[in-house]
Each structure stands twice: as C-alpha cells, then as structure tokens.
Amino acid sequence: MSYRTRRRNPRVCGYELGAELGYGAFGRVVYATHVETGNEVAVKIISKRRSEVVNVMARREINILRSVSHEHIVRLEDSFEDDSHFYLVFEL
Ligand SMILES: Nc1ncnc2c1ncn2[C@@H]1O[C@H](COP(=O)(O)OP(=O)(O)OP(=O)(O)O)[C@@H](O)[C@H]1O
Fold first, then answer.
1. Among 41, 50, 70, 85, fewest CB within 10 Å belongs to which?
2. CATH assignment of 11-91, given 3.40.50.1370, 3.30.200.20, 3.30.930.10, 3.40.50.2300?
3. Which domain of life is it from (predicted)?
C-alpha cells in the first residue's frame, strides 16, 4: 500500500510520517517517528513513477549510502520500498 493511500498520519514500515522538511531533485523529505521506538528521522520519498532513470539513481543512492560512514555525510538508517515509492530513512 502506498503512503498516499492514508492521508492523515500516513505510516510506512512502522514510521508515522509528519511535516515536510524540504524538497530535493528527486522528491520530498518529511519528518517521521518510529511508532514503537519513538526514533525521530527524516524520510526521503521518491516516486517510482517518474522514470526508470530516476529509479536506477534512487537504487544507486541507497547502495552508496549504505556503504559509506562519514561524519560529514548524513547517515542512512534504513530504506524500503513499496509498489510506488522508495523510502530512505535518514538520521535527523
Ligand atoms: N536528514 C535530514 N534532516 C533534516 N532535513 C533534511 C534531511 N535530509 C534532507 N533534508 C531537507 O530536505 C531537503 C531536500 O533534501 P534532498 O536530499 O532530497 O535534496 P538535495 O540535498 O537537494 O539532494 P538531491 O540532489 O538528492 O535532491 C534538504 O534541503 C533539507 O532541507
């Protein structure tokens, strides 16, 4: 189910999505909290419907961020996808 299916306090993979933090070239970034732990994160939501090129770039970004650890690079805590979107979970 897409996060857009539920308009009020939408949830994806245990995260409750909140206010928009910003907007990048590939989509928007929203504040979110993990429902069970209360962990606060930023979730970057990338639509799969834009183009196959964007989907390839999204997967590439996920793979690169998973493999790097640096104090100057925001940490990717988790990532998941559904039929319509990628969700990249970053530290706030
Ligand atoms: N981890 C984060 N914590 C808080 N705000 C964030 C975080 N990540 C992104 N943002 C906000 O969302 C905006 C868009 O981020 P995003 O990474 O999508 O865009 P970008 O930095 O322009 O990169 P891209 O070229 O991939 O679009 C940022 O400018 C910032 O305001």
1. 70
2. 3.30.200.20
3. Eukaryota
